[in-house]
């Protein structure tokens, strides 16, 4: 390594004193996806992305390092790394105002002692568990935790590449009336079917999430024209869709706010999309506000 900040050097010396306890130690900036790995008593800048170590070819849906940053405390998860089961410990550290994470990898299962079928079952269980952590149980789309852990990474990636992207905030109009008049089971039915309509409409969009209650968030890395077309298509689908539960049929509408992301934080962009959403609700509902 070249020049090392004295504070960073002290932390590195402390962390790497445990080198024999761990199979791999990394210092990660999970937002920018930059990585330094400690191997053979030396630090090396890794090419590629921080998630390349998992050999899965995509950003982790349940990023332990982003979670460590968000909660400001050590986080742990189990993950297969190169066909071996590891416990990954993420430790957030502040270095002169810059937040980084130290990742400590420990092989916790010797593949020699486990038959291949057991390893596969364990791997499937870990994948399923990590998926459940970021999935809304009712609607089977992503939850707010996924948004908080994933959006900072997507923002950094698309801004660096100059890719346009929009935040779409969607709210069900008069949803409280549905629960009050028809019961929560009917309300649940509405939430689940709207989530399905979102996935059918935003086919190429990976980040579709239930943000809270009857509010949804879509992160759409396409042009504003394409985002508007899909949002309007969704609005019409919902408006014309019969929501059936037992002997009851109801029709509902949605309102939406769209904001084109600038060079800013996810929270700022979400707040601005939310402002447009509430303008749509306060000016008649069943409409989309974008400006």
For the record, the count of structural domains works out to 2
In this structure, how is the largest beta sheet organized?
6 strands, antiparallel
Helix fraction by DSSP (H/I, runs of at least 4) = 25-40%
What is the structural class?
alpha+beta
CATH-defined topology of the largest domain = Alpha-Beta Plaits
Give the CATH superfamily of the largest domain. Reverse transcriptase/Diguanylate cyclase domain
Low-confidence stretches: none
The CATH class name of the largest domain reads: Alpha Beta
Characterise the protein shown here.
By secondary structure, the protein is an alpha+beta fold. The protein folds into 2 domains: 6-133, Beta-Lactamase (2-Layer Sandwich), CATH 3.30.450; 144-290, Alpha-Beta Plaits (2-Layer Sandwich), CATH 3.30.70. 39% of the residues lie in helices and 28% in strands. The chain contains 8 helices and 13 strands. The chain has helices at residues 6-16, 64-71, 116-133, 144-161, 175-182, 184-201, 224-239, 266-282; strands at residues 24-29, 34-39, 42-45, 75-81, 84-95, 98-109, 166-172, 207-212, 215-220, 243-245, 248-250, 254-260, 288-290. The strands form 3 sheets. It has a 6-stranded antiparallel β-sheet with strand order 3-2-1-6-5-4, with helices on both faces. The model has no long low-confidence stretch (mean pLDDT 85).
Key words describing this protein structure:
alpha+beta, Rev_trsase/Diguanyl_cyclase, Alpha-Beta Plaits, 2 domains, GGDEF domain-containing protein, single chain, 291 residues, 13 strands, five-stranded mixed β-sheet, Diguanylate_Cyclase
């Amino acid at each position: 390594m070249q020049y090392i900040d004295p504070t960073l050097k002290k932390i590195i010396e402390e962390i790497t004193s445990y080198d024999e306890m761990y199979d791999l130690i990394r210092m990660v900036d999970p937002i920018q996806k930059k990585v330094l790995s400690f191997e053979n008593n030396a630090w090396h800048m890794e090419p590629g992305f921080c998630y390349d170590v998992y050999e899965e070819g995509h950003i982790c849906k349940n990023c332990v390092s982003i979670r460590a940053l968000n909660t400001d405390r050590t986080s742990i998860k189990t993950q297969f790394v190169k066909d071996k089961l590891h416990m990954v410990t993420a430790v957030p550290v502040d270095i002169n105002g810059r937040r980084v994470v130290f990742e400590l990898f420990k092989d916790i299962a010797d593949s020699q002692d486990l038959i291949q079928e057991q390893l596969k079952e364990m791997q499937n269980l870990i994948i399923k568990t990590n998926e459940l952590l970021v999935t809304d149980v009712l609607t089977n789309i992503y939850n707010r935790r996924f948004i908080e852990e994933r959006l900072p990474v997507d923002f950094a990636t698309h801004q660096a590449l100059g890719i346009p992207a929009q935040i779409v905030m969607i709210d069900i109009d008069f949803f409280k009336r549905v629960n009050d008049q028809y019961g929560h089971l009917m309300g649940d039915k509405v939430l689940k079917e709207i989530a399905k309509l979102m996935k059918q409409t935003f086919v190429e969009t990976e980040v579709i999430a239930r943000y809270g209650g009857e509010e949804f968030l879509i992160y759409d890395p396409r042009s504003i024209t394409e985002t508007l077309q899909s949002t309007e298509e969704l609005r019409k689908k919902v408006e014309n869709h019969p929501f059936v539960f037992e002997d009851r049929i109801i029709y509902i509408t949605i309102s939406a706010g769209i904001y084109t992301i600038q060079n800013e934080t996810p929270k700022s962009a979400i707040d601005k999309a939310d402002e447009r959403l509430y303008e749509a609700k306060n000016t008649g509902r069943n409409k989309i506000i974008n400006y």
